[in-house]
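Support reply, case 0932

Customer input (verbatim):
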Amino acid sequence: MTRTPHRGAEGFTLLEAIVALVIFSTAGLALFSWINQNLQALVRVADVSAEAQAKRNILEYMNEINPMDRATGTNDFGTYKIAWTSTEEITPRANAGYPIGEGAFLVGLYRDSIAVTRPSGAPWFTFDLRLVGFRRAFLPAQQSGRGG
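Our regenerated output:
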C-alpha cells in the first residue's frame, strides 16, 4: 500500500509566496525609512555641533579684539571665515580710578555683528556679540595733573 501525497502538501503556493514578499517588503521599507530619519538627525546634530564649535572658536578669537581700535575686520579660520562690524552702544567714557577719581582709560560698550561664511563664500550663520572697547586716555604720569 503506497500513500499518494496530497496535492497541497508539496510546498508554498504562489499566493503564499506573494504574501510573504509583501510582508517582507513592508518591513524593509519601514526599516529603511527609520534608518533614513536617523541619518538625517545625525546630519543635523553634526551641523549644530560644528556651529557650536565654530562659535566657541570665534568667541575666543573675538576676546582678543578691541572694538575701539578695530571696528571692522575679517579672519580666515580655514574651514570658515568671519567678518565683523562693531557699532558703539555706550559712548566711551573714563573708567573709575582707584581709590577715587577717573582712571587712565576710556571704555565703551560695542555690539559686534559677526557673519560666518564657508570657504566658498556661502553664508553659514550670523550672531551678535557685546564687547568692551578701551583705549588709554593718558599716561599715569599725566593723571596727577588731572585733579584726581
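We compared this against your earlier run and they match. Two observations from our side: The mean pLDDT is 89. The CA atoms of residues 84 and 114 lie 4 Å apart. Please reopen the case if you see a mismatch on your end.
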